[in-house]
C-alpha cells in the first residue's frame, strides 16, 4: 500500500476481542510500504491490545478501531460508548486489579488524547513513530 503523505493508509474495524484487534493490526501493517520496523510493530500490537482490552472491560464495547499511517506516524483510534475517561490507578502487584495498562499506553505512545465521541462515548487516540 502506498503511504504517500497526501494519501495516508487507513483501515477501520469493530473488534470483539483484543485478539481480533491484533489480527487487524497484523493485516494493516502487512500492507504498509515501507514496512515498519519489527519493534514498532510489536509496540503497536501491545498498544492496540491494551486500548481495546480496556474499552471492552471498562466501557463494554469497542464501537470502532481506526488505524492510520503516513510516513512518520501510525495512529490508533479506539472508540467506545462510555464518556468516562481512563483513570490511572496504582498498579496491583498481586495481579487481581490491574493498573498497569494506562501507564504502559503512555510510555509506548508519542501522545495520547481523549476526544469526545460524535454520538456520545469517547475516542482514545494514540500515536507511534513509524
Describe this structure in words.
- The chain is α+β, with helices and mostly antiparallel strands.
- It has one domain: Heat Shock Protein 90 (2-Layer Sandwich), CATH 3.30.565.10.
- Helix content is 33%, strand content 25%.
- The protein is built from three helices and five strands; from the N terminus they run E-H-H-E-E-H-E-E.
- Strands 1-2-3-5-4 form a five-stranded antiparallel sheet, covered by helices on one side.
- Strand 4 and strand 5 form a beta hairpin.
- Helix 2 packs antiparallel against helix 3.
- The chain is globular and about 40 Å long.
- The chain starts with 8 loop residues before the first strand and ends with a strand.
- The N terminus is likely disordered.
- This is ATP-binding protein.
What is the helix/strand order? EHHEEHEE
Q: What is the approximate shape?
A: globular
Distance between the termini: 15 Å
Structural class: alpha+beta
- The name of the CATH architecture is 2-Layer Sandwich
Helical percentage = 25-40%
Beta-strand portion reads 25-35%
Overall mean pLDDT stands at 90
Please give the domain count.
1
The rounded Rg comes to 14 Å
Uncertain stretches of 5 or more adjacent residues? 2-6
Largest sheet: 5 strands, antiparallel
Name of the CATH class: Alpha Beta
> What is the CATH T-level topology?
Heat Shock Protein 90
| Strand arrangement in the largest pleated sheet | 1-2-3-5-4
Protein name: ATP-binding protein
InterPro entries: Anti-sigma-factor_SerPK, HATPase_C_sf, HATPase_dom
GO molecular function, one term: ATP binding
Keywords: ATP-binding, Kinase, Nucleotide-binding, Serine/threonine-protein kinase, Transferase
Amino acid at each position: 500500500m502506498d503511504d504517500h503523505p497526501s494519501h495516508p493508509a487507513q483501515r477501520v474495524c469493530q473488534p470483539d476481542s483484543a485478539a481480533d484487534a491484533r489480527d487487524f493490526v497484523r493485516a494493516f501493517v502487512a500492507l504498509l510500504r515501507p514496512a515498519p520496523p519489527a519493534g514498532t510493530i510489536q509496540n503497536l500490537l501491545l498498544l492496540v491490545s491494551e486500548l481495546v482490552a480496556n474499552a471492552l472491560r471498562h466501557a463494554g464495547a469497542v464501537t470502532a478501531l481506526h488505524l492510520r499511517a503516513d510516513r512518520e506516524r501510525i495512529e490508533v483510534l479506539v472508540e467506545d460508548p462510555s464518556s468516562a475517561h481512563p483513570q490511572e490507578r496504582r498498579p496491583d502487584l498481586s495481579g487481581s486489579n490491574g493498573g498497569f495498562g494506562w501507564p504502559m499506553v503512555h510510555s509506548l505512545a508519542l501522545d495520547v488524547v481523549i476526544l469526545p465521541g460524535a454520538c456520545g462515548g469517547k475516542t482514545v487516540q494514540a500515536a507511534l513513530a513509524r
